[in-house]
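Revision sheet: structure tokens.
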Amino acid sequence: MSAGRYVDGYWCEAVARSVDLTDTWRLSTQRTHSPEHALAWLREQALRLADALGHEPPFGATADVFREWAADHAHQRIQLTALANGQPISANACGPDRIHGQGRDIKVLYSLSARPIHRDATTRRLLPAI
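Predicted:
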């Protein structure tokens, strides 16, 4: 039996992290079976997040980062290659947000990411296929 590692899918997530409050909110997650599906999921989440943030200041600039990333197919091809080669990828933007109850604007980092799920070859036969 091989003692190597293999990729058992890809873990994707959309998160918001408060720089000021040191808190994290998981907005969405997905496990995919291929790097192509992971990238498609990230594109969908980028547009969904951009729509939620809107076009108006102060959120519009943050939303534009995700709209531009979703439209940048040349950069996504580079990211797809990196993901297929075992590297994590992400698209990130930072901007203001207002947290209910805080009474002030805070900085929030929005991050979309995908990474390979590495498994030890000795556990492969114990896990169901995706």
